Amino acid sequence: MTLLRTPPSHERFLVDVGSLEWRRKAACRLMPADMFFPAGVTGVACEEAESAKAVCRTCDVSPECLDFALRTRQEFGVWGGADEEERRAILKSRRA
Fold first, then answer.
1. Residue 38's domain spans which residues?
2. How far is 8 from 22, CA to CA, in rounded Å?
3. What is the rounded distance in angstroms from the CA atom of residue 40 to the CA atom of residue 70?
């Protein structure tokens, strides 16, 4: 079992994220991390986010990555093929 603390902007509690072995199979593991963290949400940043999402579409562990991001409330970047706004929408729909 792996426990991670949620980001500081959220109520502090530990989240069981299960095994993180999926990371070893991630298509992005050898790519520059900044590719998945575009600065902004318009213009070039949109193009960068789409490039990151294209990598995610080829990834065998994209579902696990997205689940990790949702469970740990990752605030920034592209995780499992979803950007910040998309993840917020997923979380909002789960609460409804």
1. 3-95
2. 25
3. 20
Provide the number of structural domains found in the chain.
1
Contacts for 58 with CB less than 8 Å, ≥ 6 apart? 27
Two tokens, residue 81: 């093929």
Q: Which residues contact residue 10 at a Cβ distance below 8 angstroms, ignoring those fewer than 6 apart?
A: 73
State pLDDT tens for residues 7-65. 555 554 455 556 788 899 999 999 999 999 999 878 899 999 999 999 999 999 999 99
37 exposure class (CB count in 10 Å sphere: 0-12, 13-18, 19+): middle
User: Cα angle at 74 between 53 and 80, to 5 degrees?
Assistant: 25
Taking Cα atoms as reference points, which of 85, 69, 78, 87 lies closest to residue 37?
A: 78
